[in-house]
Amino acid sequence: MDTPPSLPEQQPAPPPVWTSAPTPAPPPAWTPAPQYAPPWAHAHPPFTPARTTFWRSDAGLTTIIAAAITLVSILVAFAAWRGSNAVGRASDLDGSYIQQVAMRQQELETITGYVELDARLLPRYQEHVLAAAQLQAAADKLPAGSADRQLLEVRAQGERAIARVMRPFFIALPAVDANGLAVYDRESVLQALEDQDTRLADLQPEQVAADAAVAHDQANAFVIVGVILAMALVLLTIAQVIGGRRRIPFAVGGAAAGLAGGIGLALVEAVLFHGR
C-alpha cells in the first residue's frame, strides 16, 4: 500500500528586525480648491456697494431737508412781519392823507371866505373912494377960497375918512388908481393868502398819498414773497414726510422756490424799498 508523499516542513518566519522608525514626509502646502464660477461671472463682476456721501444718503438728505425747512420757516416769519408793518404803515398813511385833505379843504374854504368878505366890502369902499375923487375933482375946478370949493373939499375929506375906516376890514387892501377906481385881483389875493398860510405849508396830502402808494406796493411785494416761501415750505415738508427717492423732486422744487423767495425778499427789503 502506497503511502502519501510527505509535505515539506514549513520553516518558521524569522523574527522582525526593528530599526529606527522612518520620518514621515511633510504634508504638501494647502491650496484652496478652485471654486466653480459660472460663465456669466466674468462678464458681470460681483456687486460691491459704492460709498455714498452724506447728502446722498437717506439720513443725510433728511437732515438737509430739515435744515432747509427751518431756514424757510424763518424767512416766512420775517416776510410776514415786514408785510404786516408795511400794511400798517399804508393804513396809517391812508388815514393821514384823508385827514390832511380835509384840513386843507377847510383851510382853503377859510381863505376863500376871507376873500368873499373883501368882495362884499369892495363895492361900498369903491363908492366912497370914487365919491371922494369926484368931489375933489369938482372942487379943484372952482376958484380957491370960494365957499363952494371949501364945501366940496369938506365932503371929499368925509368920503376919504369913511374909506380909511373901512380899510382895516379888508384882508387884502385894494389898490386905487388916479380916477378913484379900486382894483382888486381876486385870484392874486387867493394865491398870496395860500402862500402865506403856514398851516397850508405843513399839509402835504400829495406827498402822503405818494408814500401811501409806495407802502401798498411794498406790502403787496411782501405778500408775493410770502406766498413763494410758503410753497417752498409745503414742498419741503412733503419731501420730508414721504422719504425715499420720491422725495428728490419735491426737495429740489422746494429748494428752488425757497431760493427764489429768499432772493425776492432781499430785493424787496434792501433794493426796491430801501429805507422804507
Folded structure, characterized:
- The structure is a single chain.
- With 276 residues, the protein is an all-alpha fold.
- Helix content is 67%, strand content 1%.
- The chain has a two-stranded antiparallel sheet.
- β1 and β2 form a beta hairpin.
- α1 runs antiparallel to α2, α1 packs across α3 and α5 packs antiparallel against α6.
- The N and C termini lie far apart (157 Å).
- The model has no long low-confidence stretch (mean pLDDT 81).
Describe, in short, the structure shown.
The chain is an all-alpha fold. It has helices spanning 58-141, 147-166, 186-196, 198-202, 205-242, 247-272; strands at 175-176, 182-183.
How many strand segments? Answer: 2
End-to-end distance = 157 Å
What do the pLDDT scores average to?
81
Structural class: mainly alpha
What global shape is seen?
A: rod-shaped
The biggest sheet amounts to: 2 strands, antiparallel
Biggest sheet strand order reads 1-2
Provide the helix percentage.
55-70%
Uncertain segments are: none
Strand content: under 5%
> How large, in whole angstroms, is the Cα Rg?
58 Å
Number of helices: 6
Order of helices and strands: HHEEHHHH
Note the main attributes of this structure.
single chain, 276 residues, mainly alpha, two-stranded antiparallel ribbon
Task: Reconstruct the topology from this structure.
Elements: H1 58-141, H2 147-166, E1 175-176, E2 182-183, H3 186-196, H4 198-202, H5 205-242, H6 247-272
Antiparallel strand pairs: 1-2
Helix pairs in contact: 1-2, 1-3, 1-5, 1-6, 5-6
